[in-house]
Please model this.
Amino acid sequence: MDNRERTGSGPREPALIDATFHRGLTEPRHSRRQFLMRAGAGLGALGMGGLLSACGIQGTEAAASADTFDWAAWWKRQKPSRVLNFANWPLYIDTSHGQHPSLEQFTKQTGIKVNYFEVIEDNAPFYANIEPSLKAGKPTGYDLIVMTDDDWTVFELVKLNRWITPLDHSRMPNFFKYASPLVRNSGYDPSNTYTAAWQSGFTGIAYDVTKIDREINSVHDLWDPAFKGHVGMMSDNTELGSAGLLAAGVDPAKSTPSDWKKAAALLTQQRDAGLVSQYYDQSYIKALETGDIWITQAWSGDIFQANATGFPHLKFVAPQEGVMLWTDTMMIPLHAQNPVSAMDWINFYYQPKIAAEVEDWVNYICPVPAAQKILRKEDPPVGNSALVFPTKAESSLVKGYYNYTTYAEYNAWNNVFNPVIES
Amino acid sequence: MTWRQRLAPYALGFPTAFWLTLFFAVPLISVLSVALMTGNPEKGFTLTWHWSIFWSSFKQYHTQFLRSFYYGALSTVIALVIAYPMAYFIAFYGGRNKSTYLLIILLPFFVSYVIRAFSWQFILSNDGIFLTFLRNIGLVSKNFTILHTSFAVIAALTYDAIPYMVLPLFVALEKLDRRVVTAANDLYANPVVTFTRVVLPLTSAGIFAGFLLVFVTNVGDYVAAGILGGPGTTMIGNVIQNSYLQDQTYPLASALSSILMIVLLLIIWLYARVFGTEAVEQAVA
Model:
């Protein structure tokens, strides 16, 4: 404060009124209330500014120009590099003493160093993580990512926003030589333009043979009143809705919104009859192991691993109405800095020997059927398992998920099936 | 008056205003503004001022709203009934072990709520230790379950609330002048009357603080219902979480969050009115 204004208690001329008193009479004081009001006004003004600057959230829809882009010429211009940044899910590759033997062999053979990131815990959060970079037209930091084909986010990445680099088919001969028909020409990417499978899995039914002593072979077994309160269903509405569609006798891939309503009605009836214990995420496997549920929608790989780790009484079945096949698929995000390394890895992975190595550890469904011969010799429990190498009979039951074409459709699906779960 | 003087109050208020703006007003206003937008993730969201979303989203999820308030209120009351004797014992008979008792009550907080909820899932599961024991001694039937019922959710909410309830009650009871209890006895009040007419009113500030801490957090909780609940126990927090993260229906999620905040504020305001502002000030102090 200014020196001249200081109101000390020093000697004063008696004729003068005390300066503080004088000021108090003639000048406004800052009362506590006013102070708060003004601070509030300032706050409000700042807040309004924030509001005005944020009166909209930008969409992710891409410019349509990507359609006409000459990717063949682009691929010709790409130079090999010495690095590969690979983003994958945790525990989803062969691991031994903290190393990944398949990746090490790749490095040895090609000289490409692999930075392996186990950063994908779920599709949506990972998508949220890379979306800002892609939206800004910047590299995501990853050259290869693995996401699930039935998930909405993959549709957003591939079709809606064209944020995925089309694969260079001339650099992946092993894929075309060895890839299983199950992972080729799928509904979401008919000619493998953008995607190459990493692992697949079945969504079918698992049950506890100590609690259920009859044969289970149909989706309708999930509606059996005898299992009241002990049926597990999935909280993922794509999985849940597909089970409902199978029960309604509809192929999910070819379903229509009116089929969805029928399926939701069946699922609601199942819930209201008290059959459903809970709508589970992957924790259904624990509930099955601890006996909370006797029969449940299940992923094949989980049951294989449970069988191998002390729960041999759990059994996976592909229901006669159909078993859902999903695929975690490798993709090269746009603006990747080492696309050639990514192609090299895809081609390397599709060698039966390497696929067998990874499969022996991962135990989902192997995209390379030729790896079975190797594993039958090296690790018979895996090599002979129909959960890892599906039989012809099972493969014939495979059904695909519904492929959304617009956000409105995705929204419509959610609006039909969410009320089943959110009761 | 110089410009410095004029500016002084603003300068003094700046840190608080800045803090509140950054961490309270901006998030709050952005949540409100998102509620008033329409659109979808592919086309983007634009502000369209459709206030009707508040009513329509409430109508769509009123069951979950009412359930959340019911669960929240019930768990708060049960927690109060359990926590009051605990706090009373520690404050009046704790002696030199008071801090040990408080530490024991706080001990579960050393582990994350989510992990504790999962542990309960493990303990209470059908083949878990608790139910296996009850079945073995013939107390419950084979089909008896605890998990995935509203009982499990309310119990989990209560369980997590107890420490939040004990602490403010303990502080209030500790501050209570013990001589007023003696005085009540001297005036021929029996123990029940002493408690209801003297101790309870004098610790109302603690009850109020405990209520605020517990009720507000429990109404918005989604962990208990998500992990220990089942069909028919979905709380509004689960709906909001799902529509933000899975469906990307941001306006719906924002509208539901806003309604939740506004209703909670109203309840707190009414409650403060009934209890009197003195209690609020004491609770804050």
Notes: The first helix of chain B runs from residue 3 to 35. The mean pLDDT of chain B is 90. The two ends of chain B are 36 Å apart (CA to CA). The first strand of chain B starts at residue 37 and ends at 40.
